[in-house]
Input
Amino acid sequence: MNDFSAAISLLISADSDLLMIVGLSLQVSLVAVLVATLLGMPLGAATALYRFPGRKSLVVILNALMGLPPVVVGLIVYLLLSRSGPFGVLGLLFSPSAMIIAQTLLIIPIIAALSRQIVDDLWVEYAEQLVSLGASPFRRMMTLLWDGRFSLLTAVLAGFGRASAEVGAVMIVGGNIDHVTRVMTTSIALEVSKGNLALALGLGMVLITLSLSINAGAFLLKETAQRRQA
Amino acid sequence: MTSRSILPLSLKDVCFDAGGKQLIKNLSYQFNAGPRSVILGPNGAGKSLLLRLCHRLLEPSQGHIQWHAEAEGKSNAALHQAMVFQRPVMLRRTVAANIEYALSLRGLGKKQRRARTDEVLELTGLVHLASSQARVLSFGEQQKLALARAWALKPQVLFLDEPTASLDPTATHAIEQVIDAIHKSGTRIIMTTHDLTQAQRLADEVLFIHRGRLLESGPASAFFAGPTNQLAQAFLKGELLWWDHPETKIQEN
Output
């Protein structure tokens, strides 16, 4: 109970360490979600719309990669960015950039696979009309992405959920360095191991509140928009 | 947007197979400029399939479908035709934006799109719904919007696949008025229906098809006065055309 009270007081006093950790967590996860959305959505839509050799294999791979273990992604990114790795010269290891790369790789399959399913379903409805109107393959893809935007928001939220809750990959490539790469999840893991349950609890509450708020906001937006469009 | 006529449209020995069945069988016909054609036949006759083949949404398994303009290498026929489906497909945007979207695909600038959209909304009586979301409209209004969207493109040929199916008489009347106006504006109408009274109201020429075969074609007045084919006679009398009835098979052949 004392830890819980201490956690609450940390939140109320807007502890600077806590705010920094929360800020970095949001920065890393939101940038990763943005990049993964920009890459994953067109990839998913293209997989739904275009017919090319290996398409079915790609669908299976994307679906399988949705459950990609974060530690494996962390390890791969670590090997790529380490000094002896192919991108070691960039000096990105143990930086927020490395964490963004790892989270992006982790959630691209989630956003791509969910987008493919959403666009595929919409294509069944729109196909003849768009072909009849003379829409080019690129316009068809953009139209479906736009018209499916509220459903696609679910894919983005799933990606954000995965990114913000992830520990393994960011721990490996970020190193959990205080004031540099320490985010909420890695910090919680560390503070629990140190026995500092107040900060861990405080961060846990922030993480859950953020997750709930973002999902509730997106849900309301989707509901309102869908009610307008029926 | 319009240029030289893309008609006639010639179908020669067209067959279409799907699922191991031949759904269109050796169908030959030429659609010339001018009259409104109504493709009549019972459910499952292949009417919608025939429209999709003409509009190139499907490719025939055998035979040829050719637009005159393309045969002469003068024009891309696809740019001069449009189709309205039995179940209107509305994009998730406003009524006006649905029309503007179609016009944007034809490369029209913003001002031209606005002007043409306003024009067809006025012509179809949808002005008051311009800023409404298309998907909240009634089924009849959505079909009217689908017609307006197609009309906005100023097509030389407009394919209509049972445009009033499942509409009440009032909505049907409104849709038929729009079809009539489109016809009077110079667009060639080729439509399907299984509604005899509608065919009598709208058809200049009739094509009667059954089980994928074109059994009779000609001026609407002659067809409704007395078709020569026995199945067409039975259809006009409202008799059921059983798929596996032995007499049906004999008459078809």
Q: What stands out?
A: The mean pLDDT of chain B is 92. Strands of chain B lie at 9-18, 21-31, 37-40, 62-67, 81-84, 157-161, 188-193, 205-210, 213-219.
